Structure formats: C-alpha cells, structure tokens
Amino acid sequence: MAHLRSLLLLSLAAFLFTSCRADPDPLQDFCVADFQTGITIDGFPCKPASNVVSDDFFFGGLAVAGNTNNMFGSNITAGNVQSFPGLNTLGLSINRGDFAPGGVNPLHSHPRASEIVFVIEGELLVGFISTANVFYSKVLKAGESFIIPRGLVHFQYNTGKENAVAITAFDSQLPGVVLAPLTLFGSKPAIPIDVLTKTFQVDASVIQLLMSKFGQATSPYN
Questions:
Q1: Which residues 6+ apart lie within 8 Å of 221 measured at CB?
Q2: Is 115 marked as binding a ligand?
Q3: Which terminus in the chain has less CB density within 10 A, N or C?
Q4: What pTM was estimated for this model as a whole?
Q5: In what order do the strands lie in the sheet with 123-129?
Q6: Is the pLDDT of residue 159 over 50?
C-alpha cells in the first residue's frame, strides 16, 4: 500500500510539473512548421527535414521599427511560429513593441504564455491585474524588465516624451492575444448591448459609442 501511495504521489507530481508548461517538450532536434499540408492539429506538422533551410530558423522582423500611426500609438511585431516557423515545438516566441509618446499596448492577455518585458529605449509603465484584483506595476527604463504571469490582463504605456521600444519574450510558440477593447466592443458578431450595459452599469448610448469606436479598429499586433 505504501509503495502504491508513493507511486500515485510521484505520478501526480509529474502531471503537475508537465501541466505547468505552456508548450510540450519537443521529441526531436527541430520541427519546422509546415503551413502547406492543410493538416489541422494542436500546433503545426513538421516540414520534411530534407526541405528545411537555414532561413526557417531566421526572423528579421524585430530589426524594423513598427508603424505607430494608429489609435493606440503602438505597434507590436510578433515573432511567433506563424512568422518564424523554426519556433514550432520549441515553446518560445518573441515580440517587438514600438510606442509613440503616450502610446499604449491596450489592456490584453495571453492565454497560453507568461511574458517578460525588456525595455530597449525610452520608458514604459508596465502593469498587470491579479485574480485577487490587485494591480502590480512598474515604470521601466532601458535595460529593465518586468514579468507578466500567464493569462493575466496587462498593458504597456509610454510615459515618456520620446519613442519607446521593448522586446517581450514568451514561453509559448503561439501565446495568443485577447485585446480587451476589441474583444468587448468589436467582436463579430457583437456581444448583445444588454449584456454590456448590465456588465458596465452604463446607458446603451455609451456602449454604442464604444462599439462605433472599436468596431472597425485595427489591432496594433502585426
């Protein structure tokens, strides 16, 4: 009985350890994503090794400043598996954030990854809200970092008078992003206005105004 109990505890510990990881461990050296097969799985199938080239492991998108000429004053260049196929099965990805003065990466969450924010230029107010409704934040200057736990609502906001640049890294090849304003007021089809008025305790005219603002809004993520 003691042996069985130990085995069960060991199995539970192994399950808890593996379930805390955003992506599973790879089973081979690499699995470059093959977007041409038409096969749909949880992830992407592997390109045949004979077709893999060095460029599959290269991504130059973070070297180019993003266009911040939009309603949010920010641009997020995503270096995930969809633009960087060599990341497939490796459990990581990287973004570049460009922020005009006063620009914001609006309230959002990443359902599949934790995030570390590293400021390259300027200064950013970075913050998240825990499930206990506690707000944690810090103004970061160049060379400083901040952690965003997986799935929590957070933002980055340029508090300086100059442009700001940050690199963000994730423990998932495809973290996903849920942008609060576009999700709530720009979904297709729209969330019923009665649900939103009751949720936010405002008149329908306020919800209609927000829907008109965000219904055709463009995401800062590219």
A1: 76, 78, 177, 179
A2: yes
A3: N
A4: 0.84
A5: 135-141, 123-129, 154-158, 104-109, 178-179
A6: yes
